[in-house]
Design brief:
With 279 residues, this protein is α/β, with parallel strands linked by helices. It has one domain (3-277): 3-Layer(aba) Sandwich (Rossmann fold), CATH 3.40.50. The chain is 44% helix and 11% strand. The protein has a five-stranded parallel sheet with strand order 1-2-3-7-6, with helices on both faces. A two-stranded antiparallel sheet has the order 4-5. The mean pLDDT is 98. It comes from Lactonifactor longoviformis DSM 17459. Residues 8-262 form the Transketolase N-terminal domain.
């Protein structure tokens, strides 16, 4: 995909996020929207995956460590063809396979059940180690929240990954600056995130604009070229990106739009889509 196609796809992913959370009357739109461009690049450009064969042995693995942003992952998987886009409207409904957090047993394309913060990166490190031990060449990617890195288990996993030189592992931190209780600096500052990962023997890439496809591409290309150590991409993003009243608002970490707000959000995204079509 070229840059414009990726941008258009990311905008469709955002529409799916807003639609799913509105339909569920619950969920986490803010951090799903901030990571939509990274989700899109991973699933449409970076990773070796096949929607027709979700469990193929040599596929690249992805673990959503910040599992509450499942709407972002689900919308991306649906756009990529793992399941119908219409099913996004069943998010969190009784009997739906699209639960509030990723479920590897019932959702095509989900490699690890997650939701307990800090645990996803540990699973990803295990997958990367497994590939090294078995001589497999698949790569493992995991997306963390910047609030999530306040969890001690994250650093245990990072210590192990650095020690074992897992250069087939890419850790992405969605650094949108906000968590459920407000600014991450005020709640329990994890800064400097980059220096912490460096201390655990990671190659660190500071991604100045984690919502920009060119910069995202450059970061993942650099990660792929890095040998002898795992990579951490610290991506500066905008929480609620693309929806005017959600951007940079901690209150939209875990809240669903009502009907009126949903209409405004979709109109915002339609405008973005129209602007992209004119490029």
């Amino acid at each position: 995909m070229n840059k414009l196609e990726l941008q258009k796809t990311a905008n469709e992913v955002r529409k799916g996020i807003v639609t799913a959370v509105h339909s569920a009357k619950a969920g986490h739109p803010g951090g799903s929207l901030s990571a939509a461009d990274i989700f899109t690049y991973l699933y449409f450009e970076e990773m070796n995956i096949d929607p027709k064969d979700p469990k193929k042995a040599d596929r690249d693995r992805f673990v959503l460590s910040k599992g509450h942003t499942a709407p972002g992952l689900y919308s991306t998987l649906a756009q990529r063809g793992f399941f119908p886009v219409e099913d996004l409207k069943t998010l969190r409904h009784l009997g739906s396979y699209l639960q509030g957090h990723p479920d590897m047993k019932h959702i095509p394309g989900v490699d690890m059940s997650s939701g307990s913060l800090g645990q996803g990166i540990s699973a990803a490190v295990g997958m990367a180690l497994s590939a090294k031990m078995s001589g497999a060449d698949y790569r493992t990617y995991t997306l963390l929240g910047d609030g999530e890195v306040q969890e001690g288990q994250v650093w245990e996993a990072a210590m192990f990954a650095g020690h074992r030189k897992l250069d087939n592992l890419v850790v992405i931190v969605d650094n949108n600056g906000l968590q459920i209780d407000g600014d991450i600096e005020d709640v329990c500052s994890p800064y400097p995130i980059d220096k912490k990962f460096e201390a655990f023997n990671f190659h660190v890439i500071n991604l100045e604009d984690g919502n920009d496809m060119d910069q995202i591409k450059a970061a993942f290309d650099e990660a792929r070229a890095t040998k002898g150590m795992p990579t951490a991409i610290i991506a500066k993003t905008v929480k609620g990106k693309g929806v005017s009243f959600m951007e940079n608002q901690a209150s939209w970490h875990g809240a669903a739009p009502n009907d009126e707000q949903y209409a405004v959000a979709m109109a915002d995204l339609e405008k973005v889509g129209e602007a992209l079509c004119q490029k």
